[in-house]
Amino acid sequence: MATLQASYDPPFEQRYSSLFSAMTEARRCFKSCENKVVEQCELPLIDLCCLQHGTEQEISACVAEISKASSDWGFFQVVNHGINNELLQAVRKEQKRLFHVPFEKKAASKVLNESYRWGNPTATSLDQLSWSEAFHVPLSKLVEDEACSEDEFRSLSLPWLNEITQLLPQSVTPARKPKPSHGDPSAQNGHFDSTDNFVISTIKFADDREVMQKVAGAMSDLARILAGVLAENLGYPGNCFTENCSKSTCFLRLNRYPPCPFLPGTFGLMPHTDSDFLTILHQDHVGGLQLMKDSKWVAVKPNPSALIVNIGDLFQAWSNDVYKSVEHKVMTNRMVERYSIAYFLCPSYESTIGSCKEPSHYKKFTFKEFRNQVQEDVKRTGYKVGLSRFLL
Ligand SMILES: O=C(O)CCC(=O)C(=O)O
Ligand SMILES: [Fe+2]
Question: Which residue ranges does the record assign to the Fe2OG dioxygenase domain (predicted)?
Answer without folding.
Answer: 246-347
